[in-house]
Design brief:
InterPro entries: Amidohydro-rel, Metal-dep_hydrolase_composite, Metal_Hydrolase, MTA/SAH_deaminase
CATH class of the largest domain: Alpha Beta
EC number: 3.5.4.43
Mean pLDDT: 96
Distance between the termini: 59 Å
Shape: globular
CATH topology of the largest domain: TIM Barrel
Strand content: 15-25%
Bound molecules: zinc ion
GO molecular function: deaminase activity; hydrolase activity, acting on carbon-nitrogen (but not peptide) bonds, in cyclic amidines; hydroxydechloroatrazine ethylaminohydrolase activity; metal ion binding
Number of strands: 17
Number of helices: 15
Protein name: 8-oxoguanine deaminase
Enzyme class: hydrolase
Number of domains: 2
CATH superfamily of the largest domain: Metal-dependent hydrolases
Structural class: alpha/beta
Helix content: 25-40%
Length: about 450
């Protein structure tokens, strides 16, 4: 076919490059050649002479090129409930918001997904995820709505199909009207996997099985969810060890801590990643390392909800895969991942390891390769290497905000949020000069405001 013979190349030159490969290879001034969906070559100096079918040649002077950022934990629907219950801890914040969340419908979720995705993509996210676990009866096709929004934005996407079936009457935290039945949740999750999960190299949409948390999910749903995921060959995701209150809940209800509870229900393993993992003792961290269970570190959300500081330096030293997460924007109103590089570094330096906690390169690795690892996609994305997918970002570092910082990775992580001149997902442009190419930001802003107001009206009348 003509298409395969006529490979199309994009050449990017004169930029600093942080590959985030196994050796942390960097080039002060180098080139990246993209051929169709993949990285063909990269290195120091100018691109090789004589390349054919070059459709675009970019002089990226003043820029740093990195792998695209990978978000590993989010709840898109929360985009329309930002700025509420602003001075609460996790459990009080959840109890305050559950009644509103239980009134969401498909147009609301669609607008919220667009808002969440737009904010992240504009800031260099090329792989997004949504942990969606609120499915009110008759609310429409919520999973389809978020998947359509991600496709429209042009980013790679994992939908973690969540669920809750332990309500107040069973000793759980959510109100009875906000949960599904065990059978209903499992059947809907399996149908979502069958309809949307693409296991192939370069997939744009994948699905994970994702019961919400120990305090909102029955032990049976945890167990059967793990069995379902393994039968289908998809990944597992949940919240774990987020707060001291959760730890107490597990000890009272199950007679063990969260990590032992996860182990007893089949929830430790290299196909599992868990959000937060703030309250982990040495043996919890050893269990995660031994089983290669991944962690989505969400520093801003953990600070917003006064949850604590996750022991990321200890996890990394033990060999636990760690990525970064925005978390839902009801507990991280900025909704940005590139600023989480900085927040991860700063917040971890307030912990036990002080200035040795994390450096700029480690923070960049958390947001790229670490994220690819916990999503099970490290062979495809997360670092810039020949043969991998061309998911990459050109950060503009030659303006007032960064120009006087000599080291580009230091500028990106320690400095102000850097503008994105170009982001590619599988070689396809998603952002150019700070603007999203496939959607209109102002339209999305109007739609999300209207849907937030509609939800607030419905919730007030409930
Ligand atoms: Zn969360």
């Amino acid at each position: 076919m003509a298409a395969s013979a006529e490979v199309q190349r994009i050449v990017i030159e004169n930029c600093a490059i942080a590959t985030v490969d196994a050796g942390d290879t960097e080039h002060a001034s180098g080139h990246v050649v993209v051929a169709d969906h993949r990285i063909e070559s990269l290195g120091a100096g100018r691109a090789p002479e004589g390349l054919e079918n070059v459709v675009r040649r970019i002089d990226a002077t003043g820029h740093l090129v990195t792998p695209g950022l990978v978000n590993t934990h989010h709840h898109f629907y929360q985009w329309i409930t930002r700025g509420l219950a602003t001075d609460h801890n996790l459990f009080n914040w959840l109890v305050a918001l559950y009644p509103t969340w239980a009134r969401i419908d498909e147009p609301m979720v669609s607008a919220a997904a667009q808002g969440s995705l737009a904010m992240m993509a504009r800031g260099g996210v090329t792989t997004a995820m949504d942990h969606h676990y609120v499915f009110p009866q008759g609310s429409g096709d919520l999973s389809g709505a978020v998947i359509r929004a991600a496709r429209e934005m042009g980013v790679r996407f994992t939908l973690a199909r969540g669920s809750m079936d332990r309500s107040e009457k069973d000793g759980g935290l959510p109100p009875d009207f906000a949960v599904e039945t065990l059978e209903g949740a499992l059947a809907a999750t399996e149908a979502t996997v069958d309809e949307h999960h693409d296991p192939s190299f370069g997939a744009m949409t994948q699905v994970a099985v994702a019961p919400c948390s120990p305090f909102s999910v029955s032990t049976e749903l945890m167990r059967q969810g793990a069995e379902l995921a393994r039968r289908k060959g998809v990944r597992l995701h949940t919240h774990g060890s987020e707060t001291v209150e959760e730890e107490q809940f597990c000890k009272e209800l199950f007679g063990m801590g969260p990590t032992e509870y996860f182990e007893s229900t089949g929830w430790l393993g290299e196909d599992v990643w868990m959000a937060h993992c703030v309250h982990m003792n040495d043996s919890d961290i050893a269990a995660f390392a031994r089983t290669k269970t991944g962690v989505a570190h969400c520093p801003s959300s953990n600070a917003r909800l006064a949850a604590g500081i996750a022991r990321v330096p200890d996890m990394l030293a033990a060999g636990v895969p760690v990525g970064l997460g925005v978390d839902g924007t009801a507990s991280n109103e900025s909704g940005e991942l590139h600023t989480e590089l900085r927040n991860a570094l700063l917040i971890n330096r307030l912990g036990a390891h002080r200035e040795a906690a994390l450096n700029a390169r480690q923070a960049l690795r958390l947001g790229t390769y670490g994220g690819a690892q916990v999503l099970g996609r490290a062979a495809e994305i997360g670092s810039l290497e020949p043969g991998k997918l061309a998911d990459l970002v050109l950060w503009k570092l030659d303006t007032l905000a960064h120009a006087s910082i000599a080291d580009p990775v230091t500028a990106l992580v320690f400095g102000a949020a850097a503008p994105v001149t170009l982001s590619l997902v599988g070689g396809e442009p998603v952002v150019e000069n700070g603007r999203l190419l496939h959607v209109d930001e102002d339209d999305i802003a109007r739609a999300t405001r209207a849907e937030a107001q509609r939800l607030a009206r419905i919730a007030a009348g409930a």
